[in-house]
Amino acid sequence: MTDMPPKLAEIVDEFASAPRDVVLEMLLEFADAVPPLPAELAGHEGMEQVPECQTQFFLQATVQADGSVVTHFDCPPEAPTTRAFAGILAEGLAGATADEVLAVPDDLYARMGLAQAISPLRIRGGTAILARLKRQVAASSAEG
I need a surface site. Which of 19, 41, 52, 71 has the fewest CB within 10 A? Predict the structure, then answer.
């Protein structure tokens, strides 16, 4: 899958090839891997809420001068599936360029085989997270 950053492609392949019962365990691992917010974002200042998510979810994506993207996500621990989406994106997009982020396929979660493991409502929330993230990256790229 050359249409996304290598680390994200690796994560997608791991999920796509994993047995269904292992997928949920993998999601929980990613839910635990969401980096904490920096102090300046503690009140969600400058972050966008994703209303399509059933739980409160906030994100911020900025393009640095070198073209790399920095992402920040916040979601309560009691929403492990939604946190897992954040963990997957945080790890999979770490160090990615704006062009790589924008090239991430919109059907990312379907490619991971998650539709067989989690509800359509959760998939819709994850898809909305990715769409808003890509929109922020495009806007930040245009400003730069």
Answer: 19
- Helix and strand counts by DSSP (H, E) for the chain: 6, 3
pLDDT < 70 stretches in the chain:
1-2, 144
Q: How far is CA 1 from CA 24, 66, 100, 104, 112, in A?
A: 23, 24, 12, 10, 12
Q: Quick one: fold of 6-37+47-143?
A: Sufe protein. Chain: A (3.90.1010)
Q: 68 - beta bridge partners?
A: 97
* Alpha carbon distance 93, 105 (integer Å): 13
C-alpha pair distances (Å), 116 with each of 18, 64, 96, 113, 121 = 12, 36, 28, 6, 12
Among residues 29, 39, 34, the alpha carbon closest in space to that of 57 is found at 34
pTM above 0.90, yes or no: yes
